[in-house]
Amino acid sequence: MIKKLISDFKEFAFKGNLIDMAVGIVIGGAFGTVVKSLVDDVFMPLVGRITPGGLNFSDQYLVLAGEVPERTPLEKAKLIEGVNLLTYGNFVTSFISFLILAFVLFLVINKFMTALKSKLEKPAEAPAPAAPSEDILLLTEIRDLLKNQKS
Questions:
Q1: In sequence order, which residues have a C-beta less than 8 Å from that of residue 82 and are 6 or more positions away?
Q2: CA 148 to chain centre
Q3: Which pLDDT tens digit goes with each residue over 94-123?
Q4: Regions of the chain with pLDDT less than 70
Q5: What's the pLDDT at 87?
Q6: Long-range contacts formed by 82-91: CB under 8 A, 24+ apart
Q7: Burial of 15 (0-12, 13-18, 19+ CB in 10 A)
Q8: Which pLDDT score, from 0 to 100, does residue 123 have?
Q9: Which CA distances in Å does 62 have to 74, 75, 88, 96, 130?
């Protein structure tokens, strides 16, 4: 039983499934980093530019308890004793990052699935008809001879 389990694991691990999955995870992690940089370094500065006062989402927070002077940066507000903050700015940035990642994955998977579906729906070419057997050829000749005799 254990030998069978080890044998099945070796077959699974080395036939490609595990390796393909590992490659996918590594590429997915790298892709996530690229999307995070795209959101943090490209989109969010543009959003900040078009919003009134140059809104920076990463510094946005709401004071739940305690006193924080107005316009205090998030990092300094976190250091004030007795203050409870709801830092929603990072969530907004992460959510935008998620939406972009989900949209790109949708495009890639949708394109892949469409291509796969079109391949599967493509009718297979019918094989060329086999040459008639000798019996059929002989019967055809007999039929043709009988037709010619009647005429």
A1: 65, 66
A2: 70
A3: 888 788 878 877 887 888 778 877 777 766
A4: 12-18, 54-55, 122-126, 151
A5: 84
A6: 85/61, 86/61, 86/62, 87/60, 87/61, 88/60, 88/61, 88/62, 89/56, 89/57, 89/58, 89/59, 89/60, 89/61, 90/57, 90/58
A7: exposed
A8: 65
A9: 10, 13, 7, 19, 80
CA 124, chain centre distance (Å) = 29
Whether the predicted model's global pTM rises above the 0.70 cut = no
Name the fold adopted by 2-122: 1.10.1200
Domain spans in the chain, listed from the N-terminal domain onward: 2-122
At 131 the pLDDT is 83
